Amino acid sequence: MIQEVKERFHGKHFITLQDYSPEEISLMADTAQELKRQLRAGIPHPILQGKTLGLIFTKSSTRTRVSFEVGIYQLGGHGLFLSDRDIQIGRGEAIQDTARVLSRMVDGIMIRTFRHQDVLDLARFGSVPVINGLTDSLHPTQVLADLVTIREHKGSWQGLKLAYIGDGNNVAHSLLIGGTKVGMHIVIASPQGYPPAQEVVALAQANANVSGGSVHLVTDPFDAAAGADIIYTDVWASMGQETEANTRQKAFAGYQVNAELLQHAQAEAVVMHCLPAHRGEEITEDVLEGPHSIVFDQAENRLHAHKAIMALLI
Ligand code: CP
Ligand code: NVA
């Protein structure tokens, strides 16, 4: 199954879910599920034997780094962790030079960084598939894993209501794009001054028009949570926004996923968080640890989803 699907994806970049059709997103999720099954059954799957993936990080990471490194190893290949503290990018080497040099040596590049343009430049100047492991604008590998997790718990995507409570950030953007591609109703509740970017909302709206999903931006978290199948949140201050943390704490004070908010959702609603979480800020301890929370299934599925991305693209 994976070899047949691979023909369709081989050599492509994974920079945003906007570049993929609903059918392709479904095929990637199916591949993740199949790789998860094989791993659990102890069936080896050395699809990337002899292949290498460069992993550039200019921001911290636990889940993304470990899932890609472990994932490529399980696929029979090798991952190279390239922190900007060590490679010449950190001393100012141009991204277009890094792209061409790495392309002569590795079979794919994953990058987590600040500027989205750097990921686009890496793809433009390099000649191997580039995977976006998070920028200030988007976090598509997270959302592919989230879609896998949602389908596991809810059976399908079409028509589900996902309420995202908090900052209109990279995760919110990718949820808007990915969720509307597959027919979900995405409601974002963010305080004034922190909505998702207009151009992302416009893309999501266009996706929703095709898929039968919808997009709503609200300021009242309780409006968003009403009847939701999924409640999702993320930190109030993302990586790179450390100096804004105090201002943001005040602005987001009413935007906490807690037991009271959860009461407005469907009785069988699930709670998701990309992690890392700040207990007592965007989510309470009792909800994070409670029966609705699927955050650790979600974290595990990063491994399976990232393996699918690598297995299909590289
Ligand atoms: N959710 C996520 O991307 O986690 P890391 O920052 O630990 O990679
Ligand atoms: N929005 C968060 C996500 C971390 C995985 C950040 O960018 O820091």
Top keywords for this entry?
314 residues; alpha/beta; five-stranded parallel β-sheet; four-stranded parallel β-sheet; 13 helices; 9 strands; 44% helix; globular; binds phosphoric acid mono(formamide)ester; binds norvaline
What does this structure look like?
With 314 residues, the protein is an alpha/beta fold. The protein is built from 13 helices and 9 strands. The chain has a 5-stranded parallel β-sheet. A 4-stranded parallel β-sheet has the order 2-1-3-4, with helices on both faces. α2 crosses α6. It is globular. The model has no long low-confidence stretch (mean pLDDT 98). The chain binds phosphoric acid mono(formamide)ester and norvaline. Norvaline (NVA) binds next to α7.
Quick summary:
The chain has 314 residues and is an alpha/beta fold. The protein contains 13 helices and nine strands. The chain is globular.
